[in-house]
Amino acid sequence: MHHKWFNKAATLVAHVSGRPLTFITCLFLVLVWAISGPFFDFSETWQLIINTSTTIITFLMVFLIQNTQNRDGAAIQAKLDEILRTSDALNSFIGIEHLTEDEVYRFRDQCEAAARKADADEKLAA
């Protein structure tokens, strides 16, 4: 329950950061910084301002966007699992995202083999 505020903030930041106006605003700020260079004699402090600002923002955005991606991925997985559960598909595919990489590849290989066999059977029947 106490993580709800973080989820809301992460979603809002991810949404706002992907907007064209946000990009234009950031571009404008970088241009203002670049144009101000001669007024500050391109000093180390002038350079430090943009370097520090962009590093901090990037560092924080990585975690916020990753949180949003994790929740989106989990929601999509839950929806796919429900489709599998309520269809004629094999329920053994539910939860395979928790398997090791090798186990997931084996499932994928089985699916590809089954698809090739179904194609071959279809061609024979035609």
Automatic annotation (TrEMBL):
It comes from the Bacteria. GO terms for biological process: transmembrane transport. Keywords: Membrane, Transmembrane, Transmembrane helix. Pfam families: Iron_permease. InterPro entries: Iron_permease_Fet4 (IPR007251). The chain crosses the membrane at residues 21-40, 46-65. This is Low affinity iron permease family protein.
